[in-house]
Fold this sequence. Notes:
Elements: H1 2-10, H2 12-27, H3 34-51, E1 54-59, E2 71-74, H4 81-88, E3 94-98, H5 107-113, E4 117-119, H6 124-139, E5 144-145, H7 168-173, E6 177-183, H8 187-190, E7 197-203, H9 209-212, H10 217-235
Parallel strand pairs: 1-7, 2-5, 2-6, 3-4, 3-5
Antiparallel strand pairs: 6-7
Helix pairs in contact: 1-3, 2-5, 3-4
Amino acid sequence: MKRILLMVIRNIVLVLPMWIRLCYHAAHPDKYTEQEHFKMLKFIDHRANKAGNVEIVASGIENIPKENGFIFYPNHQGMYDVLAIMEVAPVPFSVVAKKEVANIPFLKQIFSCVKAKMMDREDIRQSLQVIMQVAKEVKEGRNYIIFPEGTRSKNGNTVGEFKGGSFKAATKAKCPIVPVALINAFKPFDTNSIEQVKVQVHFLEPLYYEDYKEMKTTEIAQVVQDRIQKMIYDHVEE
């Protein structure tokens, strides 16, 4: 909460006009292109990070496929994760999120702008519909973020179990899977501090359909989990 207040106070002149602009974009998602939404969101994100003493350090941007129509699979550390990736990602993306966070102020507006898919994990039929819709859109060239842990880890930079079902959208779309290792993304919003913090975003080499077509989704999940955890262990002290 302290860091959010710091972000607001240091951007006090911009807060009202940017909030109005964000809400307008959110209320009229079809009036703007994905690039226009993304440019606006990245501006707000960057100003908030700078004001909030948050430094985002990225590596592996060259691993992001040149053609759209892929899915980012990051470890899940908290509400800040999407904002960390958005700061450094060169292309727009949407998000699959649990319905419980659909109405959180600010996140709600971001979800509307990126046309996020809200998943009810208690409703198998609805979850399947979301998977099928995401797969369809990825085939058509949209990019997505899916958190394979399903819920945020409570153990800092130690990842939780990656769920095989999270990879069904990718296998149906036959798209590149881009593992993303987040380090210290839990610190900006989940610690009661305003000290300078460095969040690392590592884009790992993608798995293409030819790499995983013979694998079960549980096997894909294990491969992605292992790669992300190794990257975290190798860089967590930086």
